[in-house]
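step=encode ok
step=design start
structure_in=
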């Protein structure tokens, strides 16, 4: 089933839609703009870092039982999440594109394609793909029963009306608008950032012009005779030839020629102003200088993860779980989790601390310990070992009470 044909069964024919009503009184019709800021290399660098780091996540369908034990069910979701959510994207591509669309529009819609299959538990959804969408306009409408739909307009000319409940909708800066992320009109509110970028652009243009001016005009050739235009041209050409052929740096001139040097001293913007403009963009996206230069320590990356990446990770998991599972399936412990399992960015000491803490508790298999250190798995490496220096709290209390009783009996016998 192709991407476009997968939408065909969702187009509601014969239905009449009306504009959905929002509590703030605005018409819920949104055009995707806000692309002006993406001409800035600083903005693109910041978003690229975030998108690259999110693309390392590993989404998983997990099920938690009543005892709190988690397992990965053999499901169509895990099959898609493992390598390729759709025929044209790997999992890394899919996550990277999702984040770029999120920062571009402050909203991203992901459509899951599926088909129904009969199992021993009845008819269930079998998911066949996930597609991040980029419509240039999205209208929220509702049918006579009050069911909410999204009417999407694509630049290819296609228009699809999709039930909102079947779309994974992830928002950024979800505030004053009832449905969409961003500003009041459901669009990126980049006015504050745009001012900084405009100032930065003016500064860069000034630098470019200053450099060109300082390197283009070096002096004035004064000709001390009355010459017509053609004679002046020939004299200038002769002078330029002298310039290009003067290996010693000394140019001979006759009595009718005089060279007057022009000293141009362009004033450039100082370093502090440039650093301020650049840091303003970085602060907007929560990217520190250490993260931007990829020269960070464990603490700096941890702060970046908790403030920038973790909200996106949590939002992805909740948005996917809300759309993909019914209320009953959610009650049964089904959810989508985006794991940040690769910790290769950690220092050697930090990795050893993880191995000691998690290894002593029996949380890691031998192969997981090897992977943490960058080594390949070994045969029989699924074995888990733990330290005997730890004991269940209840057993520890019973053990201590028993030892106390033994001490009392020994004291009685000695007396």
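sequence_out=
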């Amino acid at each position: 089933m192709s991407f476009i044909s997968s939408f065909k069964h969702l187009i509601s024919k014969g239905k009449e839609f009306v504009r959905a009503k929002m509590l703030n009184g605005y018409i819920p019709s949104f055009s995707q703009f806000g692309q002006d800021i993406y001409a800035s290399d600083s903005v693109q660098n910041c978003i690229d870092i975030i998108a690259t780091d999110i693309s390392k996540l590993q989404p998983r369908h997990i099920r938690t039982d009543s005892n709190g034990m988690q397992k990965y069910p053999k499901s169509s979701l895990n099959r898609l999440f493992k390598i390729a959510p759709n025929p044209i994207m790997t999992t890394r591509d899919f996550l990277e594109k999702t984040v770029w669309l999120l920062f571009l529009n402050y909203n991203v819609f992901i459509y899951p394609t599926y088909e129904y299959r009969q199992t021993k538990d009845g008819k269930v959804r079998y998911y066949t793909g996930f597609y991040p969408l980029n419509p240039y306009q999205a209208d929220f409408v509702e049918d006579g029963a009050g069911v909410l739909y999204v009417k999407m307009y694509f630049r290819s000319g296609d228009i699809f009306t999709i039930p909102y409940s079947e779309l994974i909708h992830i928002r950024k800066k979800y505030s004053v608008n009832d449905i969409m992320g961003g500003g009041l009109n459901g669009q990126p509110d980049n006015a504050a950032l745009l001012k900084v970028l405009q100032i930065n652009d003016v500064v860069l243009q000034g630098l470019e012009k200053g450099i060109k001016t300082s390197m283009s005009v070096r002096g004035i050739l004064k000709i001390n005779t009355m010459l017509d235009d053609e004679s002046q041209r020939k004299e200038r050409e002769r002078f330029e030839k002298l310039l290009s052929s003067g290996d010693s740096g000394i140019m001979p001139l006759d009595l009718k020629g005089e060279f007057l040097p022009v000293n141009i001293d362009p004033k450039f913007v100082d370093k502090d102003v440039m650093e301020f403009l650049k840091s303003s963009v970085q602060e907007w996206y929560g990217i520190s200088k250490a993260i931007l230069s990829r020269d960070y320590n464990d603490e700096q990356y941890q702060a970046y993860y908790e403030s920038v990446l973790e909200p996106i990770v949590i939002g992805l998991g909740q948005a996917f779980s809300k759309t993909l599972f019914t209320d009953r399936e959610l009650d049964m412990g089904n959810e989508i989790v985006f794991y940040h399992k690769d910790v290769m960015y950690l220092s050697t000491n930090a990795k050893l601390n993880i191995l000691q803490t998690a290894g002593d508790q029996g949380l890691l298999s031998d192969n997981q310990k090897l992977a943490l250190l960058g080594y390949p798995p070994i045969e029989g490496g699924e074995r888990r070992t733990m330290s005997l220096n730890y004991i269940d709290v209840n057993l520890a209390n019973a053990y201590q009470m028993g030892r106390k009783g033994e001490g009392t009996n020994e004291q009685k016998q000695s007396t």
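step=design ok
step=annotate ok -> The CA atoms of residues 130 and 232 lie 72 Å apart.
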